[in-house]
Amino acid sequence: MRLVDYLRLGFAGVKAHKKRAFTVVIIVGLLFSVITAGTFILQGLENMVLETMLEPTKGKILVMSGVDAETCGENCDLKKEVSQINSNIEKYNGKVIPAEVSQTTDGMFYKLEEDVFVNAHSENNSNVTEVIVPLDTAAKLAEIEMPEQGAEIAGKLEAIDKVQSKTLQQIVTSKTGAKYHIAKILPSGVYASDLSFMNIEQGNNPLNLIFGQIRTGMSQNFITKSAEVKPEVGSNDDGQYSGFITMDDVKAEEMGIVFAEFENIEAAYDYYRDKVNYCSEKDRIFKMCSKEYKYQVMAAISDPLTTYENLQNIWLVFKIVAAILAVIALIIALSTYARLISKDMKIISLYHALGATKGQIRVVYAVYLLMLSLMAVGFAILLGLGLAAMLSAVNMESMKQVWSLAFGTQAGEIWLIGWNNLIWWIIGVMILAAIVAVIIGNGNFTSRELAKKIK
Asked: Angle at CA 392, nearest 5°, toward 387 and 396?
């Protein structure tokens, strides 16, 4: 028989058992739709969050490593420890980026010797310092007063929009008289340390279980281009200093700080979890870090490392639940497929009468059951996609507000829809169910067994 014949006969089988076929597609599809919807939502959230956190660095991870002064002790050899940090970074395929620390009367800024920021430069007056900073620093430099933590949500959002509109890609003059061009505003915790909807007084939103695990972290201040001529230092009428203080920039390594760039979150996370770098927040509070722990490691922009770690824990729980649901769906599918084959003895005998071989009949039923499996998976994917899209649409405005409060950056459309290879596993499980059902029912395709059952 040709391929088209197998497809035609398989489709005929679906039509012949419409009621039972519809039942298995719906039941199995509903079970798998829970998995697909959860997969779309979790992966979509991970994609959106990491995209926000890593947008300033073109998707790469900028990491700060420092010598833990308490662990290192009074006689700490910073030079030796920094050398060890550099070696550890190279071991995990990271790239060390030399940096300087610039102390100004407006705060501490870092100068990286390599350009790691996307669209960081613009044509400015050479006497203006170009910076990339989080929103709270931008507000400070522009002398824009931000509402207190306990202020109304509307007031906070209005203040964030005001800072963005009055500072981003503009030159501002700080209280000290120094001029800065704000090239980019970095994602960083402003009014929220996580993405929980409790930040906008929606404590009953079920998404809080996941969104509460997304840590916003804090971003550092960076100078991407220094003014060619530093402003004169002198006291003004308010007793404040104008411009930069007369202090030379210090190499970050002399302070025990090392910046490094990693190509992706997985590589940065492996480095972060190295035994000499890792100590959980709880262990640090109770001073229970491991004996190997020596260095503090954190992201220089927002907190993708902790967020990625928390998401991996959520994925682990989700996959366990998904495995249980998949086993239930597989049992239902296999039992239904077995009954479909056992009830088709007369049709199978007709195939034999028409000259079909046992192998050809097996293929016909494999195609038939594969059609049912793919219909169930297709239904699950479409339903899961619809649920994820509906959840995103219903919570869109709330998510935008949370994003602004948590990151201080402009938030566009936030869709919790992302593809994860877990869906391929679902498809594979259902294809396997069809094949296993045919193998289990192999005896039903022989003429001897048919004769016994028909009698």
From this structure: 155
